[in-house]
Amino acid sequence: MVKERLSSCSSMANAVRRSRAPAALWALPALLLAIPAPLVAVVTDPKPIITLAGRGIALVNGTQAELNARFRGYPADRKLQGELQAGLAPGTLISFCLNSQGAATLVATAPVALVFGIPTASFELDTVLGDAVPNVAAGDAIEAHQGAADCTAATLLVSARFG
After folding, report:
1. Are residues 27 and 60 both part of a single domain?
2. Domains: count for the chain
3. What is the 3-state secondary structure (H, E, C) of 43-86?
4. Position 133 in a domain
5. In terms of pTM, does the model score above 0.85?
6. Would you say residue 44 lies in a domain?
7. Are residues 22 and 85 in the same domain?
8. Digitized pLDDT (tens) for each residue of the chain, 163 residues in all
9. Are 144 and 85 members of one domain?
């Protein structure tokens, strides 16, 4: 079998040389011979094990406020993201809390900043970056509170339930 591969590679190499192809193509048959057979590729599934999203809408200061949250649980890491778009003054502190089974826990605090002219406060936690990311289950909720106080004392603006 090796002799058959060598002779077919030699005849391919001769054909390439006769066609006046670039010298880089002359090495192609030799490279093909050097590849071990069979080749085995290991492919890992990049899909998360758990993906949950939540969206909440409420009126804040007479304008619509929207809270979007996303949780992704991978085998090796977890990510939690939240974004509030509301008619609040830039610099206003927003506390993002995770309400799980009636107990609210502060997960992040972010100031409102103008993003393309829209007052927005957001956070992103990722265990790969060393952040502490809580486990999230369907039915849990992310809450946006105005102020940097704990989750029960600050004014609740809007809540987004994961589902």
Report:
1. no
2. 2
3. CCCCCCCEEEEEEEEEEECCEEEEEEEEEEECCCCEEEEEEEEC
4. yes
5. no
6. no
7. no
8. 444 444 444 554 454 455 555 555 445 455 444 544 444 444 455 665 889 999 999 998 888 999 999 999 987 889 999 999 999 999 999 999 999 988 999 999 999 999 999 999 999 999 999 999 999 999 999 999 998 777 887 789 999 999 8
9. yes
b/e per residue, 128-148, with b = 16+ CB within 10 A?
Answer: eeebebeebeeebbbbbbbee
145 and 95 Cβ atoms separated by less than 8 Å: yes
Domain that holds residue 28: 2-34
In terms of domains, do 55 and 22 share one?
no
Interatomic CA distance for residues 87 and 60, integer angstroms: 7
25/80 same-domain check:
no
Peptide bond into 46 cis (omega under 30): no
Identify whether residues 139 and 67 lie together within a single domain.
Answer: yes
